[in-house]
Amino acid sequence: MKSKISYFAGLDIGGTTVKAILVDSQGQQAGTLVEVRSLVKDGYAATFGQLEVAIEQLAAGACVERGAIAGIGLDVPAPSSDGVIWGRANLGDDWVGTDIRGLLSARLGVPVYMTNDGNAAAVGEYALRKDHSSSLMLVAPGTGLGGGLVLPGGRCYEGVNGMALEVGHVSVPFREDDGSLPTCSCGLTGCSEAWVSLVALRRRLGLELAKPEWAAHPLNQTAASIEEKAFRLREFAQDGDELAVSIFRRQGFILGYLIADLVRVFDPGLVIIGGGLAETSFRDLYMTWIEEGFADRAWSVYRFSPLDPEQVTTRFEWATGGDAAAAIGMAYAACELFQ
Known about the structure:
Blueprint: E1 7-13, E2 17-24, E3 29-37, H1 44-62, E4 69-76, E5 80-81, E6 84-85, H2 100-108, E7 112-116, H3 117-128, E8 136-141, E9 145-150, H4 198-209, H5 226-238, H6 242-266, E10 270-273, H7 283-297, E11 315-318, H8 325-337
Helix pairs in contact: 3-8, 4-5, 4-6, 5-6, 6-7
C-alpha cells in the first residue's frame, strides 16, 4: 500500500450521512467520496465511531495506510468556537460545550481543524476554483440559509468566536401581506432565513394556497402534508407553474437584496449560490431573480467599475461542489494547515 506521502481527510458531518474525502499533499483527491451513516442524535462518541469507519474506507479506497493521514478537517452542523460546539442545532445533547476537536484529535492521534458546515462549503467552492485566488462568499439556501466567506489565499473568515457569516439571521425589510414579520427558527422576526429557506417555502406555500385564486391549484387537490407539497414545488416551477414561479421569484429577489447588503460589508467580488436550487432546470431564471434583487439594493459601484463600465465588480456563480463541497473544503483546509 502507498504511504510515502502525507494525506489529509475532510469529514463533513450531516444529519443523515457523514461524507469524507481524502487528498494528498498537493491537494489532489485520492480515491473516491465515502459516505457512512451519521449518528449525531446518538451523541458524539457514536459519531466518532462512524468517523473512524469513514477514515478506514478512505484509506482502503486510496490504497494508503491509515497512518499516512496526517491531518483532518471536520465540519459540524452547528455554531462552534475553537473546537467547542456552542449550540445544539440538530445534534445530540452531549455535543454542546464539549471540546469535540480536542477529543477527536486525541482519539485519532492527528491534528484536527473544525468549523461549521457553511464555512466548510465555502472553502470547498474556493478549492474547486483552481484559477481563483481572490475572496469568495457563499450563500446557500437549504433547510435554513447558511453562508461563508473565504479570504484571498484560501483562509476562511470565522470571526473571533467562530460564528461569523450567519447570513440567514440578517434582517431584511420585507413583510407578510398583513404587515407582520415572519418568525425565524432562531426566535427572532424578519430574518432573511424566514424568507429564503425550505422552512420559509413551506410557510409561503401554505399562505398562498389559502387564497381564493389558488383554490383550483393541483396542490390544493391533494391531502398531502405541506412538507410534501413544498417538496413538489420545484417540479411545478420547472414546468412553469404560475404559483411556483411566483414563490421562487420572490425568494430569489429577497436573496439578491440580502446579498447586496452583504457585499456592501465584505466586497467579495465573487458570490457563489449554493443549495439544492443549483441542480434545478430553472436555476438560470432563479439567478436572474437574485440579480434583480441585487440590482435593486446594491450601489452601482458594486455592480460595475466606475473606471470601466464594462467591468463587473460582483460576479455570481452557481456552486459546483454539490453535496461533496464541505468535505472537499475540509480536506483542503487540513492540507493547507497541517503540512
